[in-house]
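Practice problem: Transport permease protein
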Amino acid sequence: MSISSIYEKTNQGRRLNITWNAILTIAGRDVTRFVREPMRLAFSLILPLILIGGLAGPMQSSFGSAVHYSLITFSMTGLLAMTLFQTAMSGLMSLIEDRENDFTQELFIAPISRYAIVFGKILGESLVALVQGVVLVLVGVLLFHVPMSFSTLLFIVPVSLISCLLGGAFGVLLVSLFSNQRTANMVMPFLMFPQFFLAGIFLPVRSLPWYLDILSRITPMRYAVDLMRGVFYAGRPEAADVLLMHPIFNLIIIAVLFTLFLCIGTFFFVRAERNR
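Answer key — structure tokens:
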């Protein structure tokens, strides 16, 4: 082996270490900010808990016998995926604040890949979302008696991470479209609230009108919700009535969407930073 090839491999290993250190540093910054804001966890769980108790309970009493499965469990699984997706996505909105404070300019002059910077941000917000997901699962099991086996818990962890990554990548795409925080705050409710219903969080979306079915199929959150339910209902007779697609198809679609959102969002976000 020549000296030049050894030198090249050493440089490649050094660049890889620098990249991973940058990813972990950026992710650690977001986790640290979360730890310093404990009320953020409390307020992020208020809405899911209100929705479970205020909607799922009455719906179970009114329609539970008609659908032949627990609407509380159905809603709980949907809200878990929604919380993970939305928390990671909303966390990426802090890039707009970083942009207004010129922090992103400082990041982008660093000698690391732009994708590494964005992925570090996604990873950090995903870890924050996972903490909220763990608390929500505990509340669902202890307070609402959602059935949960040990094997289900093992599969929930990677599926939860996948939901977070998809939400984070979707957040990158949205960040690339907004020029300031005020615009983002105005537009975000119009983007998120329809997904709560089109993704089938509370009620099944099998029999939607054709135009709503099209909107449901292009809703990213739908596939995270259905994948999460694939874990909860695996091997149960209710799976045929609850699941929209096989988990493998959901994984493929999520992988494609994640790649598209990450690449397109990063490209336009970096271009916007260069044009400032």
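Discussion: The chain has a mean pLDDT of 81. Students who identified this feature from the tokens alone can consider the problem solved.
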